[in-house]
């Protein structure tokens, strides 16, 4: 069974702060509602000229930026954002995409480009993928698999065992053992019992702290 969870299932945010910039208040309210339901801390701005001030005062992980705004267009604002914070993720959000705007946005290293009106699932998947790429979104099941894998590798190496030798002791394939250690596959209860016996450790020691 894969250790990777489906998008939106059992994920835990780490006080993720998102800034939504759109000149339409209705859009800001809608985006705030949708994102807040997923546990994100959301700030909205309808005046793009205030973005620089807000980013200097507060830390955000993602900016969702409307492309077409009357007081300051999104691409110009993107340049300003990059001068303030070179690492922050930016998602362009527009109802009027064009090849030229896409190219310019990519040059500004945007994380994604979403059309209005957006699909809620697409928006959530985009945000979660950005956070996963930055290591800011965790999954309890994934963390458990990683902990088990690290502990198995540690006990194996402490005893000077190769994967091939551990395979011979447990009857599990080298490929499966390697996947378990890298948290690419979850170990069955039977496999964990075999591993704990082969490594001469209590089963609970494989779980460690997570």
Structure in words:
By secondary structure, the chain is α/β, with parallel strands linked by helices. It has two domains: 12-138, 3-Layer(aba) Sandwich (Rossmann fold), CATH 3.40.50.2300; 140-207, lambda repressor-like DNA-binding domains (434 Repressor (Amino-terminal Domain)). The chain is built from ten helices and seven strands. The protein has helices at 25-36, 51-57, 74-84, 99-107, 120-133, 140-158, 163-170, 174-181, 189-199, 203-207, and strands spanning 12-13, 17-21, 41-45, 62-66, 89-94, 112-115, 137-138. The strands form two sheets. The protein has a five-stranded parallel sheet, covered by helices on one side. α1 (25-36) links the parallel β2 and β3 (41-45). α2 (51-57) runs parallel beside α3.
Please name the defining characteristics of this protein.
210 residues; 14% strand; two-stranded antiparallel ribbon; elongated; 434 Repressor (Amino-terminal Domain); 10 helices
In the CATH hierarchy, the architecture of the largest domain is 3-Layer(aba) Sandwich
What gross morphology would you assign? elongated
Give the SSE string.
Answer: EEHEHEHEHEHEHHHHH
Find the structural class using helix and strand composition: alpha/beta
Helix content: 40-55%
Largest sheet: 5 strands, parallel
Write down how many β-strands occur, each being a DSSP E stretch of 2 or more residues.
Answer: 7
Number of self-contained structural domains: 2
Strand order of the largest sheet: 3-2-4-5-6
CATH homologous superfamily identity of the largest domain: Response regulator
In angstroms, what is the radius of gyration? 23 Å
CATH topology name of the largest domain, in short, is Rossmann fold
- Poorly predicted parts: 1-12
Note the beta-strand portion. Answer: 5-15%
The N- and C-terminal alpha carbons lie at a distance of: 20 Å
The top level CATH class name of the largest domain: Alpha Beta
Number of helices: 10
Average the pLDDT over all residues and give the rounded result: 85
């Amino acid at each position: 069974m894969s250790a990777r969870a489906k998008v939106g299932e059992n994920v835990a945010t780490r006080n993720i702060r998102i800034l939504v910039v759109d000149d339409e208040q209705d859009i800001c309210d809608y985006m705030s509602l949708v994102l807040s339901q997923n546990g994100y801390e959301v700030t909205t701005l309808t005046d793009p000229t205030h973005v620089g001030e807000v980013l200097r005062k507060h830390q955000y992980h993602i900016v969702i930026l409307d492309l077409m705004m009357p007081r300051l267009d999104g691409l110009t604002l993107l340049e300003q954002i990059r001068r303030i914070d070179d690492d922050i993720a930016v998602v362009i959000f527009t109802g009027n995409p064009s090849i030229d705007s896409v190219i310019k946005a990519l040059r500004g290293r945007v994380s994604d480009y979403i059309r209005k009106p957006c699909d809620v699932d697409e928006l959530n998947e985009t945000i979660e993928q950005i956070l996963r790429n930055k290591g800011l979104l965790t999954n309890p099941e994934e963390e458990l698999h990683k902990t088990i894998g690290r502990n198995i590798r540690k006990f194996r190496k402490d005893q000077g065992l190769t994967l091939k030798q551990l395979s011979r002791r447990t009857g599990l394939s080298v490929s499966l053992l390697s996947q378990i250690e890298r948290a690419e596959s979850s170990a069955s209860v039977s496999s964990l019992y075999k591993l704990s016996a082969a490594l001469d450790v209590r089963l609970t020691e494989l779980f460690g702290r997570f």
